[in-house]
Amino acid sequence: MRTEELIASLARDLPPVRRAAPPATLLLRWLLVTVPVLAMVVYAMGLRPGLAGLLTQPRFMLAELLALTTALISAYAAFCAGRPDEPGWKLYLPMAALALWLLELGRQCFILSLQTHGAALILRPDFLCVPAIAMAGFVPAVAMVWLLRRSAMFRTTHACLCGAMAAAAAAEVALPLFHAADTMMTVLVWQMGSVMLFTALGALFGRITLRLLSNASPHPEIA
Amino acid sequence: MAEENPDWRIWLAAAQLGDARAYARLLQEALPWLRRRARARWPQSSAADIEDMVQETLLALHQSRHLYDPTRPVAPFLFGILKFRGAEIRRRRQRHAGRETAIDDVSVTSAALATNDTQDRDVDTASMMMALKGLGERDRLVLNLLKVRQLSLREAASETGMSVVALKVATFRAMQRLKKAMKENITDED
Q1: Cβ contact (<8 Å) for A154 and B21?
Q2: Domain range spanning residue B16?
């Protein structure tokens, strides 16, 4: 087909489309779902003992702040990824936030191991981490896929990866409020390992779901 | 992107509201610009490849026109799509090139080429017919209506009594099952 003919056929019977919301608006909508859900999960699981004391510790608050930053930046990057006019550097910000978060946890682990003569390095199995992250991150992940269904037209894998990381990081913000890990090494390996696992699985299922959703409704026309 | 016509924004915003004339105008005006950008980005690509990239970009723009924000310029939006679709076509070409064998030394009038071509087509058709037979009645019905008889979704919906959405889902699933069945047939033959 000649390109001029293609243009004529595309412009014929052009249906109006509903404009996609900008990334910042989508981020706000995602937070409107995620924050109450995480609050409910924390309420249902019950606050961990000694949380009030922990909240005054800069070490704990810094880890929480970095988890929150990773969640926010990842969610924003996920909503940007599907848009062709968004610059590529925005999509790599979540990696930087995650690296910073991991570095801080590593630094805390190192300092605590010196202070406790290696006790912080003891790794104990913490099987609750995986289901806890999955439970807390499930609804944010579903909300993310739902919000991405119309905007992840390009770089879909990247959008799903960032979206899953946002949900996992958001779950990790809530997790220390109701679940105590024994040692810093347990936090690093089990909690962050659960975040990585959730991100990988979330990205995979998110991509499959998005493909099914786009096949079921390929045209973003006004119904 | 300094060469963007300021009307492009107005035309694409109008196209989002269903203005077909503004949309046609935008695509016609953007066409030479897209060809120029594609040639500049992939100077080694053939003219046919460049045209493919431009056509794929126009199709992708059509599918994603709801993503455009009228407060932003159109050129980066179009160029972004061109980059993705162009890179995809280049990757596809490179993948195919790895599986192809140059046959420049065989005469173009060679009868063997024509026979091979027919044989391949016949084998493809036969394996597809065999796979179709293995599908369920509903899968065969939707594939026959939409792919063989090439009816529109609305026509097929009125013929089957199914909704358009249900038809889309049924077609997608039928195609997946057909692909799977064809793959299994090929594996069995190997």
Answers
A1: no
A2: 7-99
Say if residue B151 is in the same domain as residue B172: yes
Q: List, in order, residues 6 or more apart from B137 with CB less than 8 Å away.
A: none
Q: What is the pLDDT of residues B59-93, one digit of tens each?
A: 999 989 999 999 999 999 999 999 999 998 888 88
The total domain count for chain B is 2
Q: What is the ipTM of this complex?
A: 0.78
Chain B residues lying within 8 Å of A211, measured CB to CB: none
Residue B105 falls within a domain, yes or no? Answer: no
- Asked if the Cβ–Cβ distance from B81 to A154 is below 8 Å, we say yes
- Which of A153, A158, A213 to mutate: most B Cβ within 10 Å? A153
B182-186 long-range contacts (CB < 8 A, ≥24 apart) are B182/B127, B182/B128, B182/B131, B185/B127, B185/B130, B185/B131, B186/B127
What is the average per-residue pLDDT within B27-49?
91
Which residue does chain B place closest to A88, by CA atoms? B80
Predicted pLDDT at A148: 92
Largest CA distance in chain A: 75
Q: From the CA of A164, how many Å to the nearest CA of chain B?
A: 22
Nearest residue in B to A8, CA atom = B24
B60–A155 CB contact, under 8 Å: no
Q: What is the pLDDT of residues A13-64, one digit of tens each?
A: 789 999 999 999 999 999 999 999 999 999 998 888 888 888 898 989 999 9
Chain B nearest CA to A173, separation (Å): 31
Whole-angstrom CA distances from A160 to A164, B55, B120 are 6, 27, 39
> The domain spanning residue B34 has which CATH number?
1.10.1740
A69-126 tens-digit pLDDT: 999 999 999 999 999 999 989 999 999 999 999 999 889 888 888 888 877 777 777 7
Please report, in angstroms and rounded to a whole number, the separation of the first and last CA atoms in chain A.
Answer: 30
Same domain, B131 and B167: yes
- 8 Å CB contact of B58 and A16: no
Interchain proximity B84–A15, CB inside 8 Å: no
